[in-house]
C-alpha cells in the first residue's frame, strides 16, 4: 500500500551550482574577479588551473567555508547569501566533500570516520548507522579488515577511499573532490578515476573535481572549467579545450605532458 500522506519529492533544480560575478579576496589580494561557473545535474566537472589560481578557494567559497567579497552563489537552488539554518542543513545533507588531505579524524577508526556524518545528521539507531557505513566502505572497494584501522595505519590510496566513503555517507547528490588522485601512483589513480566514474553513473552524482591530473580529465570528466586570469576562462569538453587558443590551456593540453595523456586516451 502506498503512503498517500508522503510528501512529494522536492523538485530538483537543474543547476546544482550557479556562481555569478564572484569576487574573492584576501586583504588587498584578489583571487577571483567576475568569475562565473555553472554545474548541471549529473555533470562531472573537472576544475583545472595553474597552481595558486584559486581552485581550492573556489571550492571553499561554494561550500561556505569562505565568505565571498562579492557576487552570488546558488548551491542546490539555495542562495548562499540568504541561507536559513534549514537550508544550510539541507545543503550539508545533499553534498559530500573529499578534501585534499582526506581530513579524516585521526583518533577514529575507518568505520567511525565513515559513520560520523550519519551520527551528526541522522537519528538512526547506531546499528543501522554502522551497517550503512560498512556498505559505503565496501562501495569504495575497501575490505572489512580495514574497519578498525586508524588513518595512520592506511596507505594514501586507502585514506582517499575512506574519505570518499565518508563523503558518500549521506547519499549526496553533489560531490566535491579536491585533487582526489594527487599522491597516488598511476595505477591507483586510474582505479580511483574508475571508481568515481562508476559512482557518478550508478548514483547519479554531480561532481565538482579539482585536479591537476590530465588522465582524470580524459577518463571521467564531461566538461572541464579552466581557471586563469582570476576567472573561468573556458568551460568545455576536453576535446574542445585541445583546440583552445588560450595560452595556458594550449600549454596544458598540448605541452609535453599533455600530449602523453592525449595519446593514451586516443
Ligand atoms: N586563508 C588564506 N589566507 C590568505 N591567502 C590565501 C588563503 N587561502 C588561500 N590563499 C591564497 O589564495 C591563492 C589561491 O589558493 P588556492 O589554494 O585556491 O590555489 P589552488 O589553485 O588550489 O592551488 P594548487 O593547485 O597549488 O592547490 C593562493 O595564492 C593562496 O596563497
Describe this structure in words.
By secondary structure, this protein is an alpha/beta fold. Helices cover 39% and strands 24% of the residues. The chain has ten helices and ten strands. It has a six-stranded mixed sheet with strand order 6-7-8-3-9-10, sandwiched between helices. The protein has a four-stranded antiparallel sheet with strand order 2-1-4-5, with helices on one face. A hairpin with a 2-residue loop joins strand 9 and strand 10. Helix 3 packs across helix 4. The longest helix has 17 residues, at 186-202. It is globular, with a radius of gyration of 19 Å. Adenosine-5'-triphosphate binds at residues 26, 31, 49, 51-57.
Q: How is this structure best summarized?
A:
By secondary structure, the protein is an alpha/beta fold. Helices cover 39% and strands 24% of the residues. The protein is built from ten helices and ten strands.
Amino acid at each position: 500500500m502506498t503512503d498517500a500522506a508522503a510528501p512529494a519529492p522536492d523538485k530538483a533544480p537543474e543547476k546544482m551550482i550557479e556562481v555569478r560575478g564572484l569576487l574573492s579576496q584576501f586583504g588587498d589580494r584578489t583571487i577571483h574577479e567576475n568569475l562565473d561557473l555553472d554545474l548541471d545535474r549529473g555533470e562531472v566537472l573537472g576544475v583545472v588551473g595553474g597552481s595558486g589560481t584559486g581552485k581550492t578557494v573556489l571550492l571553499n567559497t561554494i561550500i561556505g567555508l569562505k565568505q565571498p567579497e562579492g557576487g552570488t552563489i546558488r548551491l542546490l537552488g539555495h542562495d548562499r547569501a540568504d541561507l536559513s539554518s534549514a537550508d544550510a542543513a539541507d545543503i550539508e545533507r545533499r553534498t559530500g566533500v573529499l578534501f585534499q588531505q582526506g581530513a579524516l579524524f585521526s583518533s577514529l577508526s575507518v568505520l567511525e570516520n565513515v559513520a560520523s556524518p550519519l551520527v551528526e545528521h541522522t537519528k538512526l539507531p547506531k546499528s543501522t548507522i554502522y551497517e550503512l557505513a560498512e556498505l559505503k566502505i565496501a562501495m569504495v572497494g575497501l575490505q572489512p579488515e580495514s574497519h578498525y584501522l586508524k588513518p595512520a595505519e592506511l596507505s594514501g590510496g586507502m585514506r582517499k577511499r575512506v574519505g570518499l566513503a565518508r563523503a558518500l555517507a549521506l547519499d549526496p547528490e553533489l560531490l566535491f573532490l579536491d585533487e582526489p588522485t594527487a599522491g597516488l601512483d598511476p595505477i591507483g589513480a586510474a582505479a580511483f578515476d574508475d571508481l568515481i566514474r562508476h559512482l557518478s553513473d550508478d548514483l547519479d552524482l554531480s561532481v565538482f573535481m579539482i585536479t591537476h591530473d590530465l588522465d582524470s580529465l580524459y577518463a571521467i570528466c564531461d566538461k572541464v572549467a579552466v581557471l586563469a586570469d582570476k576567472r573561468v576562462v573556458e568551460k568545455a569538453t576536453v576535446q574542445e579545450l585541445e583546440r583552445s587558443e588560450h595560452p595556458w590551456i594550449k600549454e596544458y593540453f598540448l605541452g609535453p605532458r599533455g600530449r602523453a595523456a592525449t595519446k593514451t586516451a586516443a
